[in-house]
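Sample 3 of the quickstart, ligand uridine-5'-diphosphate:
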Amino acid sequence: MVTFGTRPEAIKMFPVVAALRETGQVDVKVVVTAQHRELLDSVLAVAGLRPDLDLDLMLPDQSLDGLASRILTRFGAALDDLRPDRVLVHGDTLTTMMASLACYFRRIPVGHVEAGLRSGDIYSPWPEEVNRRVTGVVADLHFAPTDTAAKALRLENVDEKSIHVTGNTVIDALLFARTRLAEQPSLAPSIAPLRERFAGRRIIAVTAHRRENFGAGMAAIAQALQTLASREDVAIIYPVHPNPNVAGIMRPALGDHANIALTDPLDYLDFVAMMEACDLVLTDSGGIQEEAPSLGKPVLVMRDTTERPEGIAAGTARLVGTDPTEILRETSRLLDDRAAYLAMARAHNPYGDGKAASRIAALVAAAGRPEARAG
Ligand code: UDP
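Result:
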């Protein structure tokens, strides 16, 4: 059983589902919690993936404990019904942690895709750092995207034999998207009109949605974007996350600006086309930190810590936090200093080679069926 509930998980798991099916050795069931609804559905449509079971758990204004408990009981019931031999979870969401716990309570083995990311701070990213640590305790197969992630698991005394460095499936998904877009550019209908509207300007792609930036952080980001957009040579394309803590600040602050296009969340192919079209990326997202280096786009990360140090070490990503002065200084440096820009705009793939999913599928198939099951 492969389970996930959010947009980034779906993007990173659809290649795994396809690769598992390709092995011909595994009967795959996809169960989605839909802890996000529309954002998840948009990826399922692009990937052509139809879940075998959709728990449809999202509620308006859902609290962390309410959602966590719904996932635990409803996903647990799905396990009792479908009785999988193994479950694969991804990353660090509440779905990841609660599905892992439900498996643990039934002694069903868990494989963790994108294992070993650590910031070292349980409140940043929050609650993801604890979600992934708990899952790391339960899992018996850890698919680490990078050597750094594998090292973090070893430091937590995870059994060496259970750690496999596979690359991150985000690159598999990105290559799929780029191929589709190259074959059929009309698959990204939102981006061509924006390219035309902003022709001749430097395009900055923006996303922001992290819980720890809600409130003061979001207001500070909005302020920095307002100042940036006052430059004649700049345009900002910003798909606004629907969470009211984000949209409620960004839409009133930035909605009327001639140099800013606020859009609804973009379908994945549109989003990849936007990243290809932009000059640089400002984001607090995890996945986008992984995608941008592959596309040769400098990323300024609006967070104080990152569990993805590889992009920073390679020089394509830089932490700028949410202080408007720092965001403006670093963005202006990239816009005005050609050498600084070129130094960061190198295409490379510290996060994977596009073959992570097939490695994971081979390891899962080789692991076979567990002998012991809960009574
Ligand atoms: N993404 C998308 N449309 C958008 C914004 C992001 O398809 O409007 C994709 C993006 O390509 C990346 C993923 O969503 O693969 C990142 O998701 P998000 O930033 O929500 O979560 P995080 O990666 O921080 O967990």
